[in-house]
Specification:
- 67% of the residues lie in helices and 1% in strands.
- A two-stranded antiparallel sheet has the order 1-2.
- Strand 1 and strand 2 form a beta hairpin.
- It has 352 residues and is mainly alpha-helical.
- The protein contains 12 helices and 2 strands.
- Helix 3 runs antiparallel to helix 8 and helix 5 crosses helix 8.
């Protein structure tokens, strides 16, 4: 528990103090947001707002994770390291995308194929490593099986599991990216999911099969360190949200949104709660589905379901204030996380 508190506190302090420094640095170097001319017209006033703020909370989270282990003299784990690798690797892909936008002064960065390739390369490395590296008990960070509240069903094989992991990583990194359309929206939505994983990791630690073998115990490797990772990123994200809340002084950019999607997918895979993430991160899933519905319906009929996709922009065009949309969507995100945690806890409860 000490690790979790230290990681969250250090991440919060570093991000809270580091973000205004980044704002001044990015402003001097003209590292500002590029806005689509054909998008929501009210967003044109955001042009030039410092972006790539995701670099701040990614670095803060990495330092917070390291600080928690230095303070407690406990070595880092393979599971925690792999999740942080996934976060940092996808953040690097997003950083390149943001850099191209700024350098070429346009709203589009990497071509979609190049961006997907970067995500796939990072995801493939993670997928291969996460099913290896067994500990003294023969437990690997993940098993080549599907999971909901724990692993279930037969093995789907290394190839099948790698494909599934890549779908999760690309899917959720893009889902958070689509959610990042309004000030503070993605930060708050991802924050509640990270908070849920702090609780899940701690609960799995207290009911781990290695310490107390029982019918409802969890065969999860390094649950405490996964909670530490979630706490470090959560603390850093809360510090960033202080400056990212509406009206935002800085945006996370693709650097932050891809990194957040990666850490959520990594935590779900390492805690053996892959399908549960669909519920925990329900807001991001809903927003992503709005884009899929909009594109699919338009291709079939030439008509639109929403005034604009992703979903948050539909409500903007209906006249909702930005802060109203953000707060209401945060409430939906919180409800989704609460439902997911409720399912996780009820499944564990001993059956009468």
């Amino acid at each position: 528990m000490t690790n979790i508190i230290i990681a969250g506190a250090v991440g919060l302090i570093l991000s809270m103090l580091g973000t205004p420094l980044a704002i001044r640095l990015f402003t001097r170097r003209s590292i500002g947001q590029q806005v689509r001319e054909d998008g929501v017209q009210s967003h044109l006033g955001k042009k030039g707002t410092p972006t790539m703020g995701g670099t701040v909370f990614v670095i803060a989270a990495l330092l917070a994770y390291g600080a928690s282990h230095l303070a407690t003299l406990e070595p880092p784990t393979i599971s925690g390291g792999l999740v942080l690798f996934l976060m940092t690797g996808l953040g690097a892909v997003g950083f390149l995308d943001d850099f191209i936008k700024i350098y070429k002064q346009r709203s589009l960065g990497l071509r979609s194929g190049a961006k997907a390739l970067g995500q796939l390369i990072v995801g493939a490395v993670f997928a291969v490593l996460v099913v290896g590296q067994p500990n003294a008990y023969g437990i690997t960070p993940a098993e080549p099986r599907l999971s909901f509240l724990r692993d279930f069903g037969p093995s789907i094989g290394i190839v099948g599991f790698t494909i599934w992991v890549l779908i999760m990583i690309v899917g959720f990194s893009n889902a958070v990216n689509l959610t990042d359309g309004l000030d503070g929206l993605a930060s708050g939505a991802a924050g509640v999911v990270l908070g849920a994983y702090v609780l899940i990791g701690n609960w799995q630690l207290r009911n781990n099969c290695i310490d107390q073998l029982g019918p409802n115990c969890y065969w999860v490797r390094d649950p405490l360190d996964l909670a530490v990772v979630a706490a470090a990123v959560l603390g850093a994200l809360v510090g960033f949200l202080w400056w990212n809340a509406p009206p935002a002084k800085i945006f996370m950019g693709d650097t932050g949104s891809l990194a957040l999607g990666g850490v959520l997918a990594g935590l779900a895979i390492a805690t053996r709660t892959q399908l549960l993430l669909i519920i925990l991160a329900g807001l991001c899933v809903i927003i992503t589905m709005s884009v899929i519905i909009q594109v699919g319906f338009f291709k079939m009929t030439g008509r639109r379901v929403f005034r604009m996709a992703p979903l948050q922009h539909h409500f903007e065009l209906k006249g909702w204030a930005e802060t109203t949309i953000v707060v209401r969507f945060w409430l939906i995100a919180g409800l989704c996380a609460a439902v997911g945690l409720g399912l996780f806890y009820v499944e564990w409860m001993p059956k009468a």
